[in-house]
Amino acid sequence: MPAQDSAPARINLPPADLVAYGRQVIATEANGLLALSASLDDRFAEAVSILLSLRGRVVTTGMGKSGYVARKVMATLSSTGLPSVFIHPAEAAHGDLGMLAPGDGLIAFSNSGETSELQPVVAHARKLGVPIIAVAGRAESLLMRQADVGILLPSVGEACPANLAPTTSTAMMMAVGDALALAAMQVRGVSRAGFEELHPGGAIGKRMMRVAAIMHRDAAMPIVTEDCEMRDVIMMMTSRSFGMTGVVDRDGRLVGVITDGDLRRHFDSLIEGKATDMMTPDPKWVSPGCLIEDALTLLNKHKITAMFAVEDDGTDRPVGIVHVHDFLRLGLA
After folding, report:
1. 41 in a domain, yes or no?
2. Which residues on adjacent β-strands are paired with residue 274?
3. 141 with 251, same domain?
4. Contact, 285 vs 310, CB < 8 A?
5. Which of 211, 170, 187 is nearest to 307 (CA)?
6. Source organism's superkingdom (predicted)?
7. In Å, how far from its chain's centre is CA 170?
8. CA–CA separation, 217 and 321 (whole Å)
9. What span, in angstroms and rounded, lies between the C-alpha atoms of 319 and 155?
10. 221 near 240, Cβ under 8 Å?
11. What residues contact residue 296 under an 8 Å CB cut-off, 6+ apart?
């Protein structure tokens, strides 16, 4: 038997042609999504109403590429507050049908609507009185006829040149799942605080953290009084390494900040000056309860590298300070 050639295929197309083809694929899928958006009707609203009325879980199912979509939709539903589980159709007839119970709802994905492996799941759902939402590409298919609500995918060709590999169809399925999850989330009024409770870890968890979790407190804060000599101001700024110091009045209220830039602008009067002479009044600040993502946006908007956290209770007293490096350590800046 001759040895199989394991050398990688040579690319004969210039980069510009590959880029153009990539854009063509994305444009084809985008056109499918636009057609899907235009085609949504009251059946979509009925599907959302079903999801909101469930006493149990949302069960998603699909075979092949549709199954991967169903898994992702399951994860999105769970992350937005609707408990969900995925049933693999091929495993369903071997005991996994027990995952489906009265009070649940079923979302079944199949582009053809004729996937035979789905039939045991659909039949069991109908036996239990579980409402069925079908997402398919053929209106008269078996799955659509069996469903309580059918969401029809537009008749748009796949991005695959042979019109075979599921591409546009799976993109549309994914979009339907996202739309169902987020529409239900909108109706239920899930707030950012509620979303935070469901995402304590990972990148989303970091974005949902509060300034209080990362700010430097107490003795770590560079703070001087209004009548502080500039020599002591510079020593404070140098020892704390934030590139700035806050200036407070006799009541401890934040009335200004002095930055490295202020020192350069007032270089000629540093010897005899006091903090109140050099400071920039009414500095930007953030609440300790502010999301760190919003705090970073504020830093970028005003093109500053650090700002104080001030309790939003009318006292105007600084309780912490955050620096752009704090966000960099979290991988957010």
Report:
1. yes
2. 229
3. no
4. yes
5. 211
6. Bacteria
7. 21
8. 7
9. 59
10. yes
11. 324, 327, 332, 333
CATH number for 267: 3.10.580.10
Residue closest to 243 by CA, chosen among 329, 330, 333, 325: 325
Q: What are residue 86's DSSP bridge partners?
A: 60
Q: Domain count for the chain, please give it.
A: 2
- Tokens encoding 52: 């909101």
Compute the distance between CA of residue 20 and CA of residue 261 in angstroms, rounded to an integer: 48
Longest CA span, the chain? 92
Give CA separation, 190 vs 56, 123, 180, 198, 268, in Å: 18, 33, 14, 11, 56
Distance CA 152, CA 251 (A): 66
At residue 333, the pLDDT reads 55
pLDDT along the chain (333 residues), means of 10: 57 84 94 96 96 94 95 90 90 81 95 94 95 96 97 93 88 96 84 52 60 88 91 89 90 91 78 84 89 86 90 86 83 62
Model-level pTM greater than 0.85? no
